[in-house]
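ugh ok so i messed up the first submission bc i forgot one of the chains. this is the corrected input, ALL of the components this time, i swear. 274 residues overall. if the numbers dont match what u have on ur side tell me asap before i send this to the collaborators (the ones from the other lab, u know who)
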Amino acid sequence: MLINQFLLLGAALFCIGVYGVLARRNGVLVLMSIELILNAVNINLIAFGHLWGADSAISGQVFALFTIAVAAAEVGVGLAIILLIYRNRTSVDLDEVDMMKG
Amino acid sequence: MVAQNIAFGILAAASVVAALRLVTTKNVVHAALYLVVVLSSVGAIYVLLFAEFVAVVQLLVYVGAVVVLFLFGIMLTRAQLGQDKDVDNDQRGIAAVTALFLVGVLTYGLWDYFGDDKLPEMEGVSQAALTAERGTRAVGDSIFSTYLVPFEAIGILLTAALVGAIVLARRD
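and heres the new structure output, hopefully the right one now
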């Protein structure tokens, strides 16, 4: 198998996630797109680790596990923030959250 | 080798199609279910890269916990369960241009640098050697020796995130 198969799949998932973050206005859907981006990163970590031998394969897997843990923490806090936005304005429309716009 | 390539093709197609549906569907609950397809396919791709433990963790943490958390978030924010007209904003065009530009640049860069570089062949390696070299035991040894400090930092981060989420979401 080529290394590029995995790297290009990661690039495709990353860009789909970027599109989702830019084009969605529902906060929960934006968080889901961020999960896509983090998964693309994990594919890259494991593919590069596998490319450069056993030691780096272990390192790549450990880093992917750390990324998964950080992603879980991020979803918890992110959903709490979106819940707070919903409670304050009875909508999760991120376009309406523009108080910091000049 | 051929079987692995066929499996990779099926999994990659499934994950990309499900990801595209995830960012275009009008139904918020369907988006969460498409996320399950993407995450499971990516987990199977980890198995192709000999990372079984990460694949299992992916299923347990992402499909088991994170997707359930998303469904709770959808439920608590009372998103409309049917077709929802308001899930996209008015910058879809420029978002698509940005994403296509990004995928073009990344594809060019990756193809230019890695070209036809192959992943190491594992067909001659015995199962016992593979397990000893990069199995779950080796990953665990590495976490609790080389990466002990980052591991503890992740533990503190998770605790802080748990406390923060409770403080934010609590009604007072």
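quick check: Chain B touches chain A through 88 residues (CB under 8 Å). that seems consistent at least. Chain B has seven helices and no strands.
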